[in-house]
């Protein structure tokens, strides 16, 4: 099953679309959840200004010696968040659109030569 190639059919894509509609999940929600999952090591979940600690999405905490160093770290992370999220979601949309606009072609493209694990990861809702 490691090297088995999963042929994506139009029936599979329509079933996936129905599932996402039933759960009321948009492509953006999936892309944003994927971004948060992939970058959980640097996305801030909680800031404790009294204890000078930052808790990241992955569960790691970081202690700072001074309040100013804590605020610098927060400013840097917040400044990087939006542009990196936009880039990730654009790239994600390219893959999702390639899968949803499935065309039967003779050449092997990314939309019709995915392993079962890759399909599960793309269809997974975080």
List keywords for this structure.
126 residues, three-stranded antiparallel sheet, 10% strand
As a percent range, the share of helical residues equals 40-55%
Instruction: State the strand order across the main sheet.
Output: 1-2-3
Compute the gyration radius: what is it?
19 Å
Shape: elongated
pLDDT < 50 stretches: 1-6
Indicate the mean pLDDT: 76
Largest sheet: 3 strands, antiparallel
β content, as a range? 5-15%
Tell me the number of strands.
3
As for the number of domains, it is: 1
* Number of separate helices: 4
Q: Helix/strand-derived class?
A: mainly alpha
Query: Span from first to last CA?
Result: 25 Å
- Secondary-structure element series: HHEEEHH
Protein described:
Strands 1-2-3 form a three-stranded antiparallel sheet, covered by helices on one side. It has one domain. Helices cover 53% and strands 10% of the residues. By secondary structure, the chain is mainly α.
Sequence-ordered SSE layout with sheet pairings:
Blueprint lengths: L9 H13 L4 H12 L5 E5 L4 E4 L4 E3 L3 H34 L15 H8 L3
Helix pairs in contact: 2-3
């Amino acid at each position: 099953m490691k090297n088995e190639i999963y042929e994506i059919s139009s029936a599979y894509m329509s079933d996936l679309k129905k599932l996402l509609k039933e759960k009321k999940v948009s492509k953006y929600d999936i892309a944003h959840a994927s971004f948060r999952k992939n970058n959980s090591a640097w996305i801030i979940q909680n800031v404790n200004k009294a204890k000078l600690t930052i808790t990241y999405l992955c569960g790691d905490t970081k202690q700072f010696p001074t309040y100013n160093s804590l605020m610098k770290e927060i400013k840097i992370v917040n400044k990087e968040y939006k542009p990196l999220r936009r880039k990730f979601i654009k790239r994600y949309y390219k893959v999702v659109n390639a899968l949803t606009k499935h065309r039967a072609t003779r050449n092997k493209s990314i939309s019709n030569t995915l392993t079962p694990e890759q399909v599960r990861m793309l269809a997974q809702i975080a």
